[in-house]
Automatic annotation (TrEMBL):
This is F-box domain-containing protein. Residues 37-77 form the F-box domain. InterPro entries: F-box-like_dom_sf (IPR036047), F-box_dom (IPR001810), Kelch-typ_b-propeller (IPR015915). It comes from Nelumbo nucifera (Sacred lotus). Gene3D superfamilies: 1.20.1280.50, Kelch-type beta propeller. PANTHER family: F-BOX DOMAIN-CONTAINING PROTEIN (PTHR47712:SF3), OS09G0555300 PROTEIN (PTHR47712). SUPFAM superfamilies: F-box domain, Kelch motif. CDD domains: F-box_SF.
């Protein structure tokens, strides 16, 4: 049975807060006197509930609110959520949002009731959980866990398609993309969230001229610097937002079998992890022999790679067999120390592992029943965010979010 959790009523300006507080205390006293659940028993029960179910539980009474807080301290739901956005190719305004909570292994539908026009353009993500839409007349982005807040600055001066868009501290960097004939395809602009101003920066290195869009590039942030990896060649360039300048390219040193395609992602307190397809790239018929994970040494000029793990063979087979065509690319979403790995063109099978003490361990598999024959040809974007009860409270009390628990993901 699906459980829907929506917004909650709050008093209007005409209500008397004092009268309501007195009445609430009376009702709470009656509830606590009648309630069969108290103290450790209540906390024990709450510790087994999904995070989404703790939201209404925290509103039963002050005692229950304290019990929820204590339960989260003793049993934190710390694993980041995975978000899947499905956008219609024919009508970009049609977007469905789905969330997976790995702590409870539940898939949820996130319904948004809003009249803004952010979603009449393609929804994209090239870094962490930063979602954005970009056109010649509009630029909007959101990076809070449930995308309650959208920023709407003036668009960049240079119009481009599919650029790298990344957030570094309080700055949003827009780099490269497929530009119009008269524009610079390597142009870089930086938006300051504090001053709300754009700044033109040094263009991307010339080596990226033929591959400056996110189709061919992967990005991560380390030590307040933006790393840009060319997925096919493994060349890395680095952007410093303080000086607005680039360094590189640098060549990655892959250990082990040949890596013909790779992506990078920020992970676990400033670490950068590389995920690569190992095997033979033969054009239309790639032979994938394995998927490896390395940690990048971003302090060395050679960006040396340290092996941290390898995806189990049966999981590699699931990714390879999830699509009728050969596996030619890989997608990665990360937050904290959790790494989700999937086929970006068909995320029906999603693998994950945890990066702890320099090793990828705790491998698991999520069956994504959200993707089926009805939406398999649509556009997919996946992000990953840490979600707390405060984030859920804020989203649900905004009045335009409804979260419905669907089913278990494994």
């Amino acid at each position: 049975m699906a459980i829907a959790i929506s917004s909650y009523p709050y008093p209007t300006q005409k209500d008397s807060w004092l009268e309501m507080a007195i009445e609430e205390d009376k009702q709470e006293a009656v509830l606590e006197a009648q309630a069969p659940l108290h103290g450790d028993v209540l906390e024990s029960i709450l510790s087994h509930l999904p995070l989404i179910n703790l939201v209404p539980a925290s509103r039963v009474s002050k005692a229950w609110r304290r019990a929820v807080a204590s339960s989260l301290c003793n049993s934190p739901r710390a694993k980041p959520w995975l978000f899947l956005y499905i956008q219609s190719r024919r009508n970009p305004s049609l977007i469905t949002t789905h969330a997976y909570d790995p702590n409870s292994q539940l898939w949820m539908d996130v319904t948004t009731h809003t009249s803004d026009d952010n979603h009449v353009f393609p929804l994209r993500c090239s870094h962490l959980n930063l979602l954005y839409v970009l056109s010649s007349s509009k630029f909007a982005f959101s990076f809070d866990p449930l995308n309650v807040t959208w920023h709407n600055p003036d668009p960049p001066l240079v119009w481009r398609l599919d650029p790298v868009v990344a957030i570094i501290g309080s700055r949003v960097v827009v780099a490269g993309g497929t530009a119009e004939f008269e524009d610079d395809p390597l142009a870089v602009e930086m938006y300051d969230l504090t001053s709300r101003r754009w700044e033109m920066c040094q263009s991307m290195p010339a080596i990226l001229k033929g591959s400056a869009a996110t189709t061919w590039l992967s990005v991560a942030v380390s030590n307040e610097r933006l790393l840009v990896l060319e997925k096919a060649s493994g060349a890395v360039c680095m952007f410093d937002p303080e000086t607005s300048t680039w360094e590189g390219p640098f060549d990655l040193r892959h250990p082990g079998p040949s890596v013909f395609y790779s992506v990078i992602a920020s992970c676990s307190e400033d670490h950068v992890v590389l995920v690569g397809l190992m095997g033979e790239a033969t054009g239309t018929d790639n032979i994938v022999q394995g998927i490896g994970l390395w940690e990048l040494d971003c302090e060395s000029e050679t960006f040396d790679c340290k092996v941290i793990g390898r995806m189990p063979g049966e999981m590699v087979e699931k990714l390879v067999n999830a699509d009728c065509s050969p596996l030619s690319s890989i997608g990665v979403s990360t937050a904290g120390n959790l790494i989700y790995i999937y086929n970006p063109s068909n995320p029906e099978a999603i693998m994950f592992c945890e990066f702890t003490n320099g090793v990828a361990r705790g491998w698991g598999h999520i069956h994504n029943s959200i993707v089926d024959d009805r939406n398999r040809m649509e556009r997919f974007e996946l992000t990953c965010s840490r979600v707390g009860i405060d984030d859920l409270q804020r989203a649900l009390t905004s009045g335009n979010r409804r979260i419905t628990v669907k089913y278990a993901g494994n």
